[in-house]
Design goal:
This protein has about 400 residues and is an alpha/beta fold. The chain contains 13 helices and 16 strands. It folds into two domains: about 5-220, 3-Layer(aba) Sandwich (UDP-N-acetylmuramoyl-L-alanine:D-glutamate ligase), CATH 3.40.1190; about 285-410, Protein-Tyrosine Phosphatase, Chain A (Alpha-Beta Complex), CATH 3.90.190. The two termini are about 35 Å apart.
Length: about 400
């Protein structure tokens, strides 16, 4: 089976959110048949609503900078599914991805024939098993593992972590996790294990109470920040335990980097490697003169972070162009209410995805409409001092990124 074949089969299993089957019995049976590869390395398990991907990326970069052989498992991907599975900071090859898919798929078919499992593992379950298998085959030392959805019943919650990390909790995927912060926090807290230390980002009071009640091991507190220096694209600071240079943009990354650095320090590692973090599609500047920034702000918390960033560094100082496209199942009114008033010029489009929302549904006076992201980028008439944001959906960002990177490298 080739890499394209494996990707097509995965997509045929259905959208990883819409076809989610929360529960651990199927993934446990599958991993047991594969020899429980997830038990062959130490794991840092990271849950949360926003910031968990960038926090994972910073922890992984810190470990790698300290000489650790790393695995990094994150979701979703921007362009290729191989991005989800990184070994020593590099996405696995298409050949390795296809080989892992074949092994997991054949194992699943065997378990189905035996009646051990009730259905073929879902998209996310399959990729999770593939990742755990590839990390074991590569002989990594430490896996930094991002939860896919929630925590308690997420397919990744079969690991025996050395450390648990929970980033800021907010509203998202309420149809699966509950419609209150307490319920959502209860699902995220499901990754906490007896005797395992945990690091919590600052939380809403309701979420904080739930997390602390669920804590089963020591809590590693966050140190105070001193001498903070930040600009639109990076920050640096020190604490009484460590110093941090964070290359990721946005005020929210101060907190994310502090959580990542605290996790590294708690495990006895240096925080110096954080300066080498790369996290595509999240306030990522991909072009200059004008600055073009990609950010997958797909939920209210992400939109608030992006709005705060625009307010702090650009509004009233530079002309802001906003290209926006999203999915139908998102909190569109709340997100657009935060972002659209900050735009001097607004271009609406939609990702190439069956769940995409057509711009006509937004009924935004004065906005231009483009049939796709390529046309939307062509419509931008920004001057060299302007700033352009592409946002609303990681799918849209994933479509925009190769177009813009090709433009930069030509």
């Amino acid at each position: 089976m080739t890499y394209p074949d494996s990707v097509l089969y995965l997509y045929a299993l259905g959208n990883e959110i819409k076809t989610v089957k929360l529960g651990l019995d199927r993934i446990r049976a599958l991993l047991a048949a594969l020899g429980n590869p997830q038990d062959r390395y130490e794991v840092i398990h990271v849950a949360g609503t926003n910031g968990k991907g960038s926090t994972c990326a910073m922890i992984e970069a810190g470990l790698r900078g300290d000489g650790v052989r790393t695995g990094l498992f994150t979701s979703p991907h921007l362009v290729e599914p191989t991005e989800r599975i990184r070994i020593d900071g590099v996405p696995v090859t298409g050949v390795l991805f296809a080989d892992a898919f074949r092994a997991v798929h054949e194992c699943a078919e065997m378990l189905l024939a035996e009646g051990t499992i009730d259905m073929h593992p879902t998209y996310f379950e399959t990729v999770t098993a593939m990742a755990f298998l590839l990390f074991a085959q590569a002989g990594i030392d430490t896996l930094v593992c991002e939860v896919g959805l929630g925590g308690r019943l997420d397919a990744t919650n079969v690991v025996n972590p050395r450390l648990c990390v929970i980033t800021p909790i907010d509203y998202d995927h309420e149809q699966y996790l509950g419609n209150t912060l307490e319920k959502i926090a209860g699902e995220k807290a499901g990754i906490l294990k007896p005797g395992v230390p945990a690091v919590f980002a600052p939380q809403h009071a309701e979420a904080n109470a739930v997390l602390r009640a669920a804590l089963q091991g020591p809590l590693v507190d966050l140190p105070a920040i001193h001498d903070l220096e930040e600009n639109a694209f990076a920050c640096r600071y020190r604490t009484d335990r460590f110093a941090v240079e964070c290359p990721l943009a946005g005020p929210h990354q101060v907190v994310n980097s502090l959580v990542a650095a605290t996790a590294l320090h708690a495990l006895g590692h240096s925080t110096a490697g954080i300066r080498g973090t790369v996290w595509p599609g999240r306030l990522e500047r991909v072009s200059r003169n004008p600055d073009i920034i990609l950010d997958g702000a797909h939920n209210p918390a992400g939109a608030r972070a992006l709005a705060s960033y625009i307010e702090k560094y650009f509004r009233g100082k530079r002309r802001v162009h906003l290209i926006y496209g999203t999915m139908r199942d998102k909190a569109v009114d709340e997100v657009t209410g935060l972002l659209f008033p900050l735009a001097d010029r607004l271009i609406l489009t939609w990702p190439d995805n069956p769940r995409a929302l057509h711009p006509d549904a937004l009924q935004q006076p004065g906005a231009q409409i483009a049939p796709n992201i390529k046309e939307a980028l062509a419509m931008v008439d920004a001057g060299p001092e302007d700033v352009v944001f592409v946002t609303g959906s990681l799918y849209l960002v994933g479509e925009a990124r190769p177009l813009l990177m090709n433009r930069v490298t030509r």
